[in-house]
Amino acid sequence: MRFRLLLVVLLTSTLLLVTPAMATTVNFDGLATPNAWLGRANAWGDVPSSYAGFNWNGWEVMNRDSYNAIYGLSEVTLPSNPNFAYSGHDTLTLTMSSGTPFYFLGTELSRWSGNLGAPGAANSVTITGWLGATNVGSVTNVLLSGWANSGGIVGAVDRLEFAPAGVNAGYFRVDNLSYDAVPEPATLGLLGGGADWPRILGKTTAA
After folding, report:
1. Comparing C-alpha atoms, which of 126, 111, 124, 184 is closest to residue 160?
2. What pLDDT is recorded for position 19?
């Protein structure tokens, strides 16, 4: 009886340990937009290089009201108000990376609807996940005037590249980027049978 009770307790504890954490969403909404653009004050800002625990290269952020005012649009809502991220500083391929591997679950993407000069608005975006020098996988999305989820990449990554494509390999918009942490290796070992359960339980198996 004690053996069964102990086994139940250990298995329950293990399952609790390996239950995936809830996805974390990066929405860019807490970032400042202090810079003017095309006559609009407080329109855009940089995504700080260490924002949300990641390293960001080429990213800027704009608020919805400025986007609407500059381009004469009437977008009512974003996936998460008031900001969205986009490719800035003419760095059209965006990267985000971390020293710790993570699972990329997807992000919301949208075409840049405003009237732009060169290089214009991108028609599609390919998101590629890397783990070190290994290409883990990629997803390609045709951009719409509204917002659509990109879908994720199967496997842990430590760097994402967002590359525009199509006739106009230019600007695109990003919001609500979701990711999940990779479980600790020791925890995965317990679930996968790496633990010596007979020894842990004080039992022996027949030869």
Report:
1. 126
2. 46
